[in-house]
Design goal:
The complex is a heterodimer of chains A (131) and B (187).
Chain A (H helix, E strand, L loop, with lengths): L2 H6 L4 H9 L8 H10 L14 H20 L19 H7 L2 H24 L6
Chain B lengths: L2 H9 L6 H20 L2 H18 L9 H24 L2 H7 L5 H4 L4 H10 L4 H11 L5 H8 L3 H22 L3 H8 L1
The chains are: A mainly alpha (131), B mainly alpha (187).
Chain lengths: 131, 187
């Protein structure tokens, strides 16, 4: 017999004992003490959906991974005028050169930094940025 | 007032509706806190913390499951975190359990003799196991709900329930002088 079934069929005397004794009574005045603490907090509010969802973060992480890999395949010799031709850069040089530009990388880093700050503030202070 | 309406009111900024939720669940939260911490003062502190956290996170409750399970989850985790921080300060969790094995009357504050006997029997279990038994037998949570609250796997929960039930039967049989327990079992 399943544990739940056994309990529900009342064959287990522990259920009778636990139920007879019931819950412990919380001390009186508990509600007032909690309300005093709550008064100091910002109002509870509906938590808005995150600006970037889980799938979005995976996509950003994948893109960042690709860009870092690409950056590592670039020639290290600054005097070189031609980009290194590797299995990775073949045929994708134009697109990835654009995506791996300083501007794109800076935007990605700023987005990641601000989102992390938002999540940290939300967890620490119960604050959530207005999206 | 309906529970979902109360929650909607609080989320709309009406703090005065929060005591309605507290009134309904304060004894449930206090019971699990006490079962884990085994100390009235610590249980009071944790009960307060649980409701403050629940207020802060109320917007995260989407109404997909029962509110009681969601709140119980906060209560269980807060109590476990609290006892673990105490463990770091005072020694191992086993030592804390051992301290509770022979509670004084003042510590238990029994409602009646059976309550005291049950509290004493529960102190032979680890705090986590005592909470799991309370969820199963007092709150009548299903195994799936206990999994949601504790984050322990279903098979582990079942093993814990079997093991703890056996242990409690043994202890209660000794405490309740055998005959009384046999009568309860046949009832």
């Amino acid at each position: 017999m399943d544990l739940d079934d056994e309990r529900m069929s009342q064959k287990d005397p522990l259920i009778g004992l636990f139920q007879d004794i019931g819950r412990r009574q919380a001390p009186s005045g508990m509600e007032a003490m909690v309300m005093a603490r709550i008064e100091a907090l910002p109002s509870a509010s509906e938590s808005s959906l995150p600006l970037i969802g889980r799938v979005g973060w995976w996509m950003i992480a994948s893109l960042a991974g690709i860009l870092v890999t690409y950056a590592l395949t670039l020639p290290t010799n600054i005097l070189s005028t031609a980009p290194a031709v590797t299995w990775f850069t073949k045929g994708t040089h134009g697109l990835f050169a654009l995506l791996a530009s300083r501007w794109t990388m800076s935007i990605l880093l700023c987005t990641a930094g601000l989102s992390l700050l938002d999540n940290w503030a939300s967890a620490k202070f119960g604050m959530k940025g207005q999206h | 007032m309906d529970e979902s309406n109360t929650i909607a009111l609080i989320l709309a900024g009406d703090r005065s509706a929060f005591p309605l939720l507290m009134e309904r669940y304060v004894h449930m939260v206090h019971t699990v806190a006490y079962r884990v911490l085994r100390n009235e003062m610590d249980a009071e502190e944790v009960t307060q913390d649980v409701f403050v956290k629940a207020y802060q996170r109320l917007g995260e409750f989407k109404g997909q499951g029962k509110f009681s399970t969601w709140l119980y989850s906060i209560a269980y985790r807060t109590a476990i975190t609290s006892i673990r921080s105490r463990k770091k300060a005072t020694g191992s969790l086993d030592e804390l359990s051992a301290v509770g094995r022979e509670p004084s009357a003042a510590m238990i504050d029994p409602i009646d003799e059976r309550s005291a006997i049950l509290e004493k029997a529960l102190r032979t279990l680890t705090p986590e196991d005592a909470a799991v038994m309370t969820m199963f037998y007092l709150e009548e949570f299903s195994v799936e709900e206990i999994v949601t609250v504790t984050g322990i796997g279903a098979s582990n929960v079942k093993v814990k329930l079997h093991r703890c039930r056996k242990r409690l039967h043994e202890v209660l049989q000794q405490q309740l002088k055998g005959e009384t327990w046999t009568l309860m079992m046949s009832a």
